[in-house]
Amino acid sequence: MKRPLTPHLRKGVALAVGLALTGACSAVAHRAPAAARTGDAPPAAGRHAATLWRADPARGTGNFEGTETKPGTVRVVDDPAGRHGKSFELHTSGEKVDGPTRVRVETRGHRTSAGPLRFSREGDVYYIGWRSMWGPLPTKKGEWVVLWQLKDYGSGAATPPLSLRARGDGTADLEYCDPELRTTRLWHTPLTLHAWHDFVVGIKVSKDPARGWVRLWHDGTAQQLPGGTEQYPAATLRGDWVTDKWGVYRSDGDRGAATAWLNSPAVGRSYRDVAPAG
């Protein structure tokens, strides 16, 4: 037969239980930011996941899964503006290598110690950040130059879900192409040459436009997308996987040499992981 607890013992048991519950709640509160680090929104200051990939200029083109130079060169040089140190220079003479091939000089994908980083799993969230400068960049009315794209690969690949394009009307825009190949201009801005601009694109990976989404920051400011919100529903996965490309890829009507400068490209799980610093 159990002896009843004396008032003194009851007080001690209550104190011990209270301390245990307080410790458990503290542990949950401490762990909660870790879940937020891979969520849809940028995390609170000081709470962010490790960058998944960041280009090191010392590795040159070894940072990328590949380069496409038709024709062109990709090399590391000092920032011609003297502001951001070593940068990638992607230059094309603009002379077509043959009739069917469009002029392009681009990096493709991201190489890590574990292999290529590709976006393929439904529901994953990625943020891609970089700094770009262009010039010369000849454009012509009715033509286009792709400066960055989220490109699809594998079975069912058709056209990039996202493209940052320079137009012949003095603007640049972010264009979304849905699974039915219908295009929507998500955002646009005046095109300025010989000046650095920062970009961060956030994506939730999905073939379902009701589940995937796109976000955009330009020069550190979140941009409003169609519908007046900062997050646009989009099918960001096409084919077996998507990855991104930087450089110059253009329609046949544009002529002449072109150069794209790239600095601080990175991929992470939050805006804070990849936003260019300084």
UniProtKB/TrEMBL annotation:
> By its UniProt entry, which InterPro entries does this protein fall under?
Polysacc_lyase
Spell out the protein name for this chain: Polysaccharide lyase
Q: Which organism is it from?
A: Streptomyces noursei
The record's section on Gene3D superfamilies has: 2.60.120.200
Name the segments for region: Disordered: 57-96
- The signal sequence is 1-29
Print the keywords alphabetically. Signal
Q: Where is the composition biased (Basic and acidic residues)?
A: 76-96
